[in-house]
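Thread: cytidine-5'-triphosphate complex, take 2
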Amino acid sequence: KDLFPLRYLLRLERFAEPFQKLLTIAAQAAAERGWHLYLVGGAVRDLLLADPSEPVALSDIDLVVDGFHQAATVGAGVELARSLQTLYPQARLEIHGKFQTAALLWHNDTELDSLWIDIATARTEFYPYPAANPEVEASSIRQDLYRRDFTVNALALRLTNPRSSELLDFFGGVLDLRSRQIRVLHANSFIEDPTRIYRAVRFAVRLGFVLEPQTEGYIRHAIDSGVYEQRDRIVPALQTRLKSELKYILQAPYWRAAIRKLADLDALTCIHPMLKLDAALWRQMRLADWLQRCDMTIPHWQILLEVLIAKIDDRANVAQALQLPADAIKRLANLAEIERQLEQLPHCEKTSQMVQLLKLFSSETLILVAVRSSRTIRRLIWTYFSRWSLVKAPIDGTDLKALGYKPGKQFKQMLDDLLAATLDGEISDRAQAEAFLHKRYPLT
Ligand code: CTP
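Output below.
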């Protein structure tokens, strides 16, 4: 599908009225201070890719301030955000001191809905060493765009006059949008920020693009050179970014294609040098995707990530480094012992005994064990989710009182016995339940 003429695609009128108004007001506020204002990143990319007959929705906008008549100092973005907030008092202002960026956040606004605007001053980033957190200083819009990940994300639309609506495309982003390719701006990009490996795959799969061959070569080179393997160098902030990329990918509808591509690039080694997607692990992930529907309260991405991590011997440390929740770290640390306990399932004589054992574990734990274990155990866990966990005894606590039993400690035992008898098929209706009770717990 070819792109429409750029002039047509880049009209701000393609955004809904309240967004156009907001961008116009922001541009005026910048111009009054002698600055230029640019719309950059994903919003410009999506404006060029979106169906021209549909209005373009915005939920996340990146704006960059650059000097024009006046040099823009590091605090320019923050100043602009403050002035916008006086006009939109319903927006929350957040300032991130270190990089001097500001964010304005609207939540369920009547006009702007939920909108997040980041406003930054044009800046350059330096990486003191590979995979470190970048250091920042104020600079020009060209330099600001050059520090970005891919050509299709390094486009800027000028919002201020003169030459408003002009597209800044220093690195061939439009050509790459036309030929549907993800291309980095420089050879060291993945060495400096290895999370970009995951971002490249995510954008390629999401947009239906391919990785430009040289870019794919840079990825393979970064992985071969062990960019993630110098574990002592891996700052916690990088692990946080890796986790959020993994989360982004694993919760997306396209997670399968993305994981396959990452595996093809050998990029799962970024999680752990020994991690490979073999046929068994791939099957486990697809099973987990299916099984998690038994309990929709479990975060889907986390279960898939735990299945990946469970494959590694050093799983507890990997989970800890990726800052997974404490219960997930504990589950992965104790997995071998949990699996040993659940291997007893087929040896239980009665259904109630199996349920008693299964009840000791959370749904997350059972899913993790189910996908990794034999068909017999998986079937028992599945039956627990789909049938046994839904079984109720024909009599509840209120009924016990009505039958003349006095509330007390024994109630729980009585209810447990009733449930066990129901599970084991010894009772199935109220009359049988009452007879069972009278026999086992005679009323004095
Ligand atoms: N960026 C980058 N390197 C990263 C993360 C982000 O260069 N590791 C840059 C990209 O230019 C990106 C911009 O920061 O366009 C904003 O990041 P993000 O919001 O994650 O990306 P979007 O392009 O807005 O993507 P999405 O549509 O998924 O929100």
